[in-house]
C-alpha cells in the first residue's frame, strides 16, 4: 500500500518584539476564550460616543425657540434641520481622514481623542446661548469624532476569526442603543426647571441653561468611558511588509507570492452595493430620528402630536428596551434562519408601511394613539438595527 504524500507544514507565524499588533495576535493564538474584557470596553466606549448624536432631537424644536432665531413658528423646522445635520456634515468630511490616522498611529489614540471631543464639545453645545455657537459645536463634534471605523476595526482585531461577528455585533448593538437611548436622555432631562420644578429652580444654572443637563450627563458618562480606555490594548501592527519579508527569508520560509492582483474596489459590486445600501438606510434612519422628534412636539394645528420633550423621551425609551430584547433573544435565531441578505430585504420592505402609517396617527388620541405610536416606534427601531447589523460575508466582499 502506497503511503499518502505528507502535507507541507504551515509556515510558522512571525511575531515582532515591541509590536502591539503582534502582541495581540500572540495573545489570540495562545487563548481559546472570548475576550470579554476588551469587548466590554468596546461596548461602553461605543455607547458613550453614540449618545450625543441623537440626544438633541427631543428638545431641538424647543431649543430653536429659545435661541430666538426663527421669525415664525413655521420656520423652526428649517433652522432645526441645519442644526441637526451639522454633526453629520462634519463627520462626513472627516471620516476618511480619521480612518487614515487610525491606520497610521493606531486605533486607541483615535478612540481616546474621539471620546475627549465628546466630553468637550457636547458640554459646550449644552452651554450654547446663540444659534451660531450651537451649530459650530455640533459641527466640530462631528468632524473631530472619528470613532466608528476605528472601533469596528478594533473589535475585529481583538477577536479570533470565529468570533469576529460577535465583535461587530457588539459595536452595532451599542451604537444602535446609543442612538435610541440618547434621545431618551435628552427628552427626560431637557428643560429640567419646567419638567421638575420641585428640584430645579428657574434661576438655577439648569434653569438658565435648560439644555445643559442632558449634555452634561452624557459628557460625564463619556469621561468614565475615556478612563476605561486605559485598559484597551493597541492592536495596530507597527512593522511593515519589508521587515516581514526579511524575517521570513532569514527563517528559510520564503515563498513566491501567487496572489492575483486585486480588483479595484469600484468594480467590487457586492461591496459597492453593500455600501450604497448602508448609505441610503443611514440617511433614512437619521432623517427619521430628526423628523420623528420634530413631528411629535409640533402642535396639532401643524399636523403634529403636541408632545413634550419628556413624552418623546418616553417613547424612545420603550423603543430602546425593545431593541435590547430583540438583540438578546431574537437576533441570532433570525440571522441564522434568514441570512443577512434576506434579513436586510425584509427589514427594508417592512419599513415602508411603518413610516407611511405615522401621518395617520394624528387622527388618533388617548390609548389608541399611544398604542399605535409605541408599536410603530418599537418595530422601526428593530428594523433599523437589523439593517445596520447585517453585513455581507468576507468571502463575498473579497471577490
Structure explained in plain terms:
α2 runs antiparallel to α7. The protein folds into two domains: 222 residues, Growth Hormone, Chain: A (Up-down Bundle); 132 residues, no CATH class. The chain is globular. With 399 residues, it is an all-alpha fold. Helices cover 70% and strands 0% of the residues. It contains 17 helices and no strands. The relative contact order is 0.13. Keywords: Membrane, Transmembrane, Transmembrane helix, Transport. InterPro entries: MFS (IPR011701), MFS_dom (IPR020846), MFS_trans_sf (IPR036259). Its main location: membrane. It is found in: Membrane. It comes from Triticum turgidum subsp. durum (Durum wheat).
Low-confidence spans = 248-260, 391-399
Number of strand segments: 0
* Count of domain modules: 2
Structural class: mainly alpha
**What would you say the CATH architecture of the largest domain is?**
Up-down Bundle
The main β sheet shows up as: none
The name of the CATH topology of the largest domain is: Growth Hormone, Chain: A
Name of the CATH class of the largest domain? Mainly Alpha
Distance between the termini: 42 Å
Question: What is the overall shape?
Answer: globular
**In percent, how helical is the residue content?**
over 70%
% residues in beta strands: under 5%
Protein name: Major facilitator superfamily (MFS) profile domain-containing protein
InterPro entries: MFS (IPR011701), MFS_dom (IPR020846), MFS_trans_sf (IPR036259)
Keywords: Membrane, Transmembrane, Transmembrane helix, Transport
Transmembrane segments: 39-64, 76-98, 110-129, 135-154, 166-191, 211-232, 271-295, 315-334, 346-365, 371-389
Amino acid at each position: 500500500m502506497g503511503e499518502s504524500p505528507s502535507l507541507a507544514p504551515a509556515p510558522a507565524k512571525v511575531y515582532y518584539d515591541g509590536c502591539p499588533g503582534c502582541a495581540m495576535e500572540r495573545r489570540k493564538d495562545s487563548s481559546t476564550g472570548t475576550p470579554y474584557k476588551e469587548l466590554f470596553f468596546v461596548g461602553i466606549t461605543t455607547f458613550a460616543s453614540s449618545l450625543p448624536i441623537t440626544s438633541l432631537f427631543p428638545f431641538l424644536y424647543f431649543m430653536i425657540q429659545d435661541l430666538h432665531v426663527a421669525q415664525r413658528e413655521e420656520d423652526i423646522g428649517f433652522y432645526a434641520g441645519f442644526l441637526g445635520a451639522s454633526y453629520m456634515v462634519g463627520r462626513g468630511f472627516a471620516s476618511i481622514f480619521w480612518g487614515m490616522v487610525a491606520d497610521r498611529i493606531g486605533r486607541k489614540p483615535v478612540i481616546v481623542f474621539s471620546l475627549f471631543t465628546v466630553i468637550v464639545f457636547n458640554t459646550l453645545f449644552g452651554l450654547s446661548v446663540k444659534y451660531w455657537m450651537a451649530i459650530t459645536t455640533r459641527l466640530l463634534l462631528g468632524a473631530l469624532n472619528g470613532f466608528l471605523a476605528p472601533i469596528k476595526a478594533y473589535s475585529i482585531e481583538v477577536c479570533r476569526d470565529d468570533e469576529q461577528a460577535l465583535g461587530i455585533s457588539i459595536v452595532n448593538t451599542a451604537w444602535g442603543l446609543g442612538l435610541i437611548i440618547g434621545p431618551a436622555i435628552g427628552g427626560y432631562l431637557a428643560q429640567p426647571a419646567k419638567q421638575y420644578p420641585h428640584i430645579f429652580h428657574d434661576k438655577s444654572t439648569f434653569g438658565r441653561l435648560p439644555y445643559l443637563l442632558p449634555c452634561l450627563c452624557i459628557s460625564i458618562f463619556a469621561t468614565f468611558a475615556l478612563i476605561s480606555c486605559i485598559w484597551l490594548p493597541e492592536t495596530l501592527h507597527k512593522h511593515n511588509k519589508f521587515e516581514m519579508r526579511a524575517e521570513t527569508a532569514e527563517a528559510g520560509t520564503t515563498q513566491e507570492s501567487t496572489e492575483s492582483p486585486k480588483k479595484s474596489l469600484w468594480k467590487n459590486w457586492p461591496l459597492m452595493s453593500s455600501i450604497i445600501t448602508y448609505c441610503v438606510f443611514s440617511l433614512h434612519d437619521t432623517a427619521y430620528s430628526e423628523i420623528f422628534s420634530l413631528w411629535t412636539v409640533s402642535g396639532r394645528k401643524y399636523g403634529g402630536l403636541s408632545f413634550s420633550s419628556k413624552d418623546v423621551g418616553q417613547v424612545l425609551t420603550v423603543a430602546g428596551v425593545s431593541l435590547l430584547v430583540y438583540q438578546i433573544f431574537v437576533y441570532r435565531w433570525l440571522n441564522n434562519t434568514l441570512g443577512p441578505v434576506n434579513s436586510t430585504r425584509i427589514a427594508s420592505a417592512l419599513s415602508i408601511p411603518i413610516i407611511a402609517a405615522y401621518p395617520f396617527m394624528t387622527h388618533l388620541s388617548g390609548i389608541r394613539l399611544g398604542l399605535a405610536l409605541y408599536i410603530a416606534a418599537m418595530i422601526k427601531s428593530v428594523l433599523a438595527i437589523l439593517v445596520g447589523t447585517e453585513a455581507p460575508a468576507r468571502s463575498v466582499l473579497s471577490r
